[in-house]
Amino acid sequence: MGVTGGLLKILPNAAAFRKVDLRSFKNGIQHSTTTKEPTPLRIGVDICVWMVSADRAFGSQLGDERHFSNHGRAELLNAGETEESERERLERDLNYVNCCTEYIIRRLNALREETNVEILVVFDGATPPGKQTEVTDRRNRQAVYEQQRDEPVDTTGSREAEERRIKALRKAGASRHYAGVYTAVMEALRKERIPFLVAPYESDGQLAFLSMKKYIDLIVTEDSDLICYGASPILFKLKDSPMLEGIFEGILVCKEDLAANQGSVNLLDFSPGMLTVLFVAVGSDYSPKLDGIGIVTACKIVRKAFLSGHEDRLAMVFEGLFAAARKLSLTEEDKKVYKKKFMEALLAYRHPVIFDPVEKRCRLHGITHDGEVSETEAELLTHVPYAELVNDVKRRERITGCIQPPSLSILIAEGYVCPRTRRTRKNMTIPRNVKADLIQLGIWKDFNNPNGAETENERHDSSNSSNQVSGIKRKSLRDPRLKPCDEDSSTDSGDFLYSQPFSTRPPTNG
DNA sequence: CGTGTGAATACAT
DNA sequence: TATTCACACG
């Protein structure tokens, strides 16, 4: 996940943020000046955070409830080895998955009903190889939590130990059942006719792509990395508590907001490439940061490097950063490593692997299938080592991941194939036409019915698959509303302000 | 002045 | 547990 303080790092002046209530879009938006009829606001929801949220809400179920009360703890100690039965455990796990799923569906439906928006849910896919090291660390931490969760009840009954345990429980949460929640949510989405899409890799890049192609009008996420991808507009911090008023309020961030509010940090004249460089410089998921480089310093360095007419801007950026950094023990080797990581991060943000729902295949953002790189990247490609990285398919794939053939990509996007393992998902109803595709790809595996006979259930579902599966195929991938709305969607030339769809923007409060 | 730190607070569960 | 504040360092 993104740098949480990142939003504030970039935009320290919170007052300048626009608080927006999605209900004010009930009547749709004026999509372009040529279209008269307002159309529903199309939002892409980064569902990952909602899953985490569900996890937080129900994760404690995974532990024995008795651990939470003194009475229960005593009971456990007296009973000695009161291992819950297998049956009990399964029931509890199932209940957990159901709770999480219901939680998410409830929110999405509430959102849909109250705001009349069109929702496209976007799931995270595989972790890009370039980020793998981070994730490995995260997994180690996760393992520690799980270990703490599963360790026997502290016989001393010390409060600290118990609190630690509960905390660990919360954090470990669904990890073990995450796949279960994933498939359950996807099944539920099909049932509810809510379009969704599984990104080949990170949802950030996918959402940014959808946004830039104008397949969606607004991104709903918690991840400030989206800014780094050059996406706009973005709605952060959408309240997710069903009890409170203001569930549909969030903080809207458009490109203009990056410009206006702060004296020393004015990003108005920043190209998308510069913005990415800036984000990488202040620290990202993909690369470490230099000590002493904050938003202000980085901003100055990037501006100077890009706007002072120097050919090799990236080299200038590096120079500036190294000069400004508190150079305690910055050896040549350190610099070399830093530059390498920096460029890898840059590649990851500028050219993520995405699924194009109109072309119906994966590709690198900003790079055509013929390997032609977008004009917007010219200012970065003048740095030879970076250009080499971008143009070297093998090295590139080691960062961004591979581009799967369309047949497989579609099945991944539709949720039938796990993007990480590239195998059929367990516990998922597979319609007949999808099954045929899976067989053809040689990755079909019938988890529920090993002898291969068609069940009543399956028959039922395939008969209606033209509507249902294609819940995703029809509703989101083939939905005409997902076509680019303007012919100017190809004008990628640095303009990602996206002010057009928000011509009916509600009055700002605050 | 900007950055990095830890402590205090408000918040939600 | 996340955000905000106050302070020290360069």
Automatic annotation (TrEMBL):
Signal peptide: none annotated. SUPFAM superfamilies: 5' to 3' exonuclease, C-terminal subdomain, PIN domain-like. It comes from the Eukaryota. Residues 130-162, 450-510 are annotated as: Disordered. Residues 147-162, 477-486 have a biased composition (Basic and acidic residues). Pfam families: XPG_I (PF00867). Residues 500-510 have a biased composition (Polar residues). Gene3D superfamilies: 5' to 3' exonuclease, C-terminal subdomain, 5'-nuclease. Residues 190-258 form the XPG-I domain. GO terms for molecular function: 5'-flap endonuclease activity. This is XPG-I domain-containing protein.
